[in-house]
Write a structure and sequence with these properties.
Pfam families: TonB_C. InterPro entries: TonB_C (IPR037682). It comes from bioreactor metagenome. This is TonB C-terminal domain-containing protein. The chain is α+β, with helices and mostly antiparallel strands. It contains four helices and nine strands. The strands form four sheets. It has a three-stranded antiparallel sheet with strand order 5-4-9, with helices on one face. A two-stranded antiparallel ribbon has the order 1-2.
């Protein structure tokens, strides 16, 4: 009986020690299996932020209908930067319509990104980006 109690006590104490605490660190990604992933470097566009947004905005041709709609909204786009620096699985999370979303998908696919690095190895990382869209008839 003592042996069973001792085995139970030791195994339950080991389970308590093995628990992982969630993190609030923005450089870590918590996956669904409660494992923290620490990136040495996040995936990043090789252009400056202003140059990147300039490329995006120059790649959008606003229709007359979009200009007249006075759009004041944000497009939210999600995509993966692969370990080989290629952009894949571009998805629009929040749309504004008028064909703008589809054009943003095509432009984002052309952006030069550098893959995230973990332990010195390039890895895939999801990136989410918000792109403000403002239209007016005088454009």
């Amino acid at each position: 009986m003592r042996t069973i109690f001792l085995i139970f006590f030791l195994s339950s104490s080991m389970l308590l020690i093995a628990q992982i605490n969630p993190t609030k660190d923005s450089t870590k990604y918590t996956d669904p299996q409660n494992m923290d992933v620490v990136y040495s470097a996040e995936a990043k566009c090789e252009l400056s932020d202003s140059a990147m947004y300039s490329v995006i905005y120059n790649g959008i041709n606003y229709s007359e209908e979009a200009k007249k709609a006075n759009i004041n909204d944000n497009v939210m786009v999600s995509f993966d930067v692969n370990f080989d620096n290629k952009i894949q699985e571009v998805t629009i999370i929040h749309k504004v319509g008028y064909g703008i979303d589809e054009q943003i998908v095509e432009v984002v696919k052309t952006l030069p990104f550098k893959a995230a690095v973990m332990n010195g190895i390039p890895v895939r990382q999801n990136v989410m980006m918000t792109i403000p869209i403002r239209t007016y008839p005088e454009m």
